[in-house]
């Protein structure tokens, strides 16, 4: 079977494996206080052009979102999120288990707007019984979003402005950050993301690492005692160097960006070819997740060889599925999939 | 520098690294639903002689303790623990963050007794204002304990009996399980631990893995929806197979037990030789953690070459330190340390 | 000023005040273990025709909703609610602070349907990654709802059936229960509410008491250790008899129903007369809360004498406001308000 | 039966009842935004000589402790308390349910010392793995303590100094504040308590009110958004004026202090007379709670007429019980009790 269902189906980039083997017998301090973590943090600060940023390494996305939320909010404060936000849908209530409400907004494509955020927040403070309601205090963006879309520079800058005017923290979930940054439509740099947000993370799990997310904190008040939060949420890896080694390897030799570009290019190829076959899309994604609508009969055939993620039933005879490329995707697998679809369609 | 401060200073057993490399390009389902996890769970059920047990893989100890506590207790229920229990001291309040009080008992050496547990629980229910106090519902034991001691078979059986009579869950934290099971003084088997407890975990992080703990659940009511809890606590690894691969490798060819025995033997050597030098011990540990009392002047000399964990100041001129052996400890390092101490003492 | 903004603007029914004075010097046990609480619970069981029900007295609505939610749900479970539900909007995130997500559904008028509940729950269990999402476990209905509407017997029965088939607890928030039961359109009895739900509460704060809500539990598993939950949530009144005395007085001589009927009748009068004046309504409420749309200019005049709750801006020149009647409303105040509106409208 | 078991066995001071009756038909805004609450807050600020303080009214002690703890601490921070502190023993884990660990210290008589607090806090920050442990951030004192003892001015001033040096909030639980302030041994004023602490509360439930505690906040950062916390914890009474009316009445005409002095005087009489009878005491309390050791046989006789709180079994034939006086205690009841004990002892 060939898996296109997600971007976490393989192990890790071979350079990481090599580095893990090479350093395996070394003895280091635990809990992220080793030199690999320090070096990786330096590399990331440099890539972000944020010399004052704090960088921490956690093992997974839900864990990271939970830890950031718990660290940033007081008990009566909530996080503004798109209704399809990972934090709202696919974390089994982790933010709520940490005591915080998701303040949910509808969006056409997973992207919040500055206007929405401003209107909601202003309405809260204008309400005479504001204290009977959860106070908005953080905005959660995923980049790319759960539907594969991205924020353009101008949009993120405007969201940032609106947040800063209103005292809202801006948190960007970059589980698939590389795949956003390296797609053709993108006009944002990593440094701009660091500049416009208060805290964000660079996803490793889906972008070449075995596991791991690098949290970058630029806002002073969010830096305070962050390691206490990490430990309390069960997110402090004993052999923390594993995270340092991985991110150090990813941020050497432009590797993070190159492997992301590989996935982006294959996704673009997939998209273009499927468009040529007149296959409709469930969302218009420029990134490594492509959401396509296929006839169920065709899907049944494809499922003999390929694994997809089911997204939604579209009508009585069609379904939407997600196809992901990643750093690990082989171009020949993409080509074979395209050929097989063409064949099944009789093109 | 040679690290004796802890048992998580190196990477992992080479067989694990080899297996990770070998399987790196394979594509598998995520979140622990791959075949490696299934096979590893089978191996563990077999080793525990517990064919009906549920086995889940999490990444670290605090995370596991937090998830188990959250899963087992209702909001008004607490967990009985020795005052030095990891859950009470070194998890930055993770159980409390999940809403639960540690019901703390003093012990001479980190080991709770059946009598203590029974007395506390009976006193709770006998109190006319019981409902004004946290209800004891789970007992947390670490095995080996934080001071290196272990429970003997008869002690664990009696604790188990007392718990079952009173409706208390018995949870055993086996972060260093192998080092307890394979020490000379031990008379318990893994199967007996599975039999006497309701839920326990087999530590990987400190016993040969890069990371990972295997939770074994034998009590039916604790099995219900456990994966929801794992996900909610940020403890469900996307590339779950990494845990399956590691535990599969550890439980092949008796590896977990052999590498544990290695650490136990070196700790015993260390202990015996230090006793011969008339060095006093801070606790009487039969396992891989040895707590010794050394003159500060001697320690200053040793610290040029070795890293220890500081435990306590004993008096104006002596300190207690922890020396750990592990699966990765080299016998020549132990020998050198012993020789250096002898030399410094002029023996 | 004459307050029509809410149903908690006065103190309490004079019979309660008399009883408080009469019993003031009596000495009783604390924490709800006095005879007044026992007698009041008996009266309520009788009124509910639920001899096996447990009855507990708490002081307020948010507190009660929080305590019930915390008692009923495991950490990964959530509560289905209409988006306008009090629990979702006006409790400053109390359910989330207790760790639970509100699973929010849109409704035309604040009323959930059996079909919605069934569809949502079935979709959850049909999803292959169900454990990544919050599990629906309780349904929260307010009766009357926040828009003044009520469930008809057939609707509640069907919701109950759907919940029982799916293992969902059905919880009814009866902060204004009397005003629902005694309105003209209602076809439900208190006994039927007890029968169809698993747990509900009879509101006292808004229906004649100084404060207090009576929780009625008919489902066995929700009865377990409920007093521990009450105490833990800060909801166990030291002088618990104050609650017993109030509910005993309300449930003597049919008082609860009679004073509710008074409010219902005055609301109906208000509604009928406003309809005659062709004043549009913001929602079609049969109960003591009436939501009317008035020209801003008219409102400005009325605000010199009356207090309303602002609900929404409807257009550039109109607003929706809430008018409440209660056990304490004077018919002459209603008549004067109607006369003043008529006068201002030149009718 | 005559109740000496607690200080919350009666209703309220008659002046409160009169005021409730007098104002019963008045219409006021809800949720503590009425004029009675404003006036009561002014009176309290004046009595505290703290014109800048914020004053809030909650309904009970556990609720207040829970709300303050939730408001003051970040998730990884805990509250230092004596092991017998109400917050640690008799709140069914309410602080933990809000996510916070009680950092427990042993005391001879319920009173923490400045030295203990300083040593614990300094040790925390000196520990190289501080972030693996709960960070101390607030100190909880009860005044009087659970054993009836009080802090002297010099002790409280020193605790305050130690807290301020270390950035710890100082919170004083004054559930029985009046009984401490008005006892003969006391040398503290209400204004000094306001000065030395950051937040404290003046107990009403046990000192003349039906219910209610007045929280006084002098530290700026604890004032922020406190009403959100109150609402979220279910502690915002709809008819908030009930609290305003009660505290206004208590703080008029020196009433709070006079009724407290009454209880203190009767407790002193009780103590002196029991000492004359050579009855031993379980703790040396100068306040309204007296803890005496009585022969079980004598207790059996007394229990035919009196209700006490059982505290502890002292030996095979003696028990410790608590006798409380309060604003409501009749001197003739105290005299009769003393006479009965004398009679039973054959004195």
Question: Would you give an account of this structure?
Answer:
The structure is a homotetramer of 347-residue chains. Chain A is α/β, with parallel strands linked by helices. Chain A has two domains: 2-6 and 257-345, Alpha-Beta Complex (Aspartate Aminotransferase, domain 1); 14-255, Type I PLP-dependent aspartate aminotransferase-like (Major domain) (Aspartate Aminotransferase, domain 2), CATH 3.40.640.10. Helices cover 42% and strands 18% of the residues of chain A. In chain A, strand 5, helix 7 and strand 6 form a beta-alpha-beta unit. The radius of gyration of chain A is 21 Å and the shape is globular. The mean pLDDT of chain A is 97. The interface between A and D is medium-sized, with 18 and 18 residues.
Number of helices of chain A: 15
Predict the CATH topology of the largest domain in chain A.
Answer: Aspartate Aminotransferase, domain 2
What is the 3D form of chain A? globular
The CATH homologous superfamily of the largest domain in chain A is called Type I PLP-dependent aspartate aminotransferase-like (Major domain)
How many domains make up the 3D coordinates of chain A? 2
Helix content of chain A: 40-55%
Radius of gyration of chain A: 21 Å
Placed side by side, the strands forming the largest sheet of chain A appear as 2-8-7-6-5-3-4
In the predicted model, the low-confidence regions of chain A spanning at least 5 consecutive residues are none
As an assembly, this protein is homotetramer
**From the coordinates shown, what is the CATH architecture of the largest domain in chain A?**
3-Layer(aba) Sandwich
N-to-C CA distance of chain A: 24 Å
What order do the SSEs of chain A take from the amino end to the carboxyl end, as H and E?
EHHEHEHHEHEHEHHEEHHHHEHEEEH
CATH class of the largest domain in chain A: Alpha Beta
Q: What is the tally of beta strands of chain A?
A: 12
Mean of the pLDDT scores of chain A? Answer: 97
* Greatest chain-chain contact: A-B, 53 and 53 residues
Major pleated sheet of chain A: 7 strands, mixed
